Amino acid sequence: QERLVESGGGLVQAGGSLRLSCAASGRTFSRYVMGWFRQAPGKEREFVARIGWSSSTYADSVKGRFTISRDDAKNTVYLQMNSLKPEDTAVYYCARVDTSPTLWGQGTQVTVSS
Fold first, then answer.
1. Exposed end of the chain (fewer CB within 10 Å): N or C?
2. CA 88, 77, 41 angle in degrees (round to 5)?
3. What are the pLDDT digits (tens) for 2-30?
4. CB within 8 Å of 2: residues ≥ 6 apart
5. Strand order in the sheet with 18-24
6. How far apart are CA 74 and CA 56, in angstroms?
7. Which helix (H) or strand (E) segment is 33 a member of?
8. Which residues are registered as beta bridge partners of 33?
9. Angle at 70 between CA 63 and CA 110, to 5 degrees
10. What is the per-residue pLDDT across 51-65, written as a single tens digit (0 to 9) for each?
11. What number of other Cβ atoms are within 10 A of residue 19's Cβ?
């Protein structure tokens, strides 16, 4: 059964950085389109970033601060988060977005203190 497992969340001060990782168990990971989403308390889950074979896209709220990348040899997608703000506090989920239904990881908590 295919799985996604996130890691790297934690508590950081505003202005700090974190790198999230998402390891996939699939055999053809290099073909996957992967994304990061987040859900803050009391809010709906929202798109953060997405990476395909040759391009990536970002939500306006994180553009210039976050970078999504992938290492197909390690079946892993990353989210480098810099200049973190308290409003970035949320549970972050990685997802395989080119399949129906979307395959989700279990999430990892990111808390940014002011």
1. N
2. 25
3. 899 999 999 999 999 999 999 999 788 98
4. 24, 25, 26, 96, 103
5. 4-7, 18-24, 76-81, 66-71
6. 19
7. none
8. none
9. 55
10. 998 899 999 999 999
11. 13
Q: Which two tokens stand for residue 63?
A: 């553009």
- Catalogue the E-assigned strands of the chain: 4-7, 10-13, 18-24, 34-39, 46-51, 56-58, 66-71, 76-81, 90-96, 103-104, 108-113
Mean pLDDT taken over the chain: 95
Euclidean distance between the first and final Cα of the chain, in Å? 40
**DSSP conformation class of 104:** E
* CA atoms of 91 and 108, how far apart (whole Å): 5
pLDDT of residue 63: 98
Amino acid at 92: Y
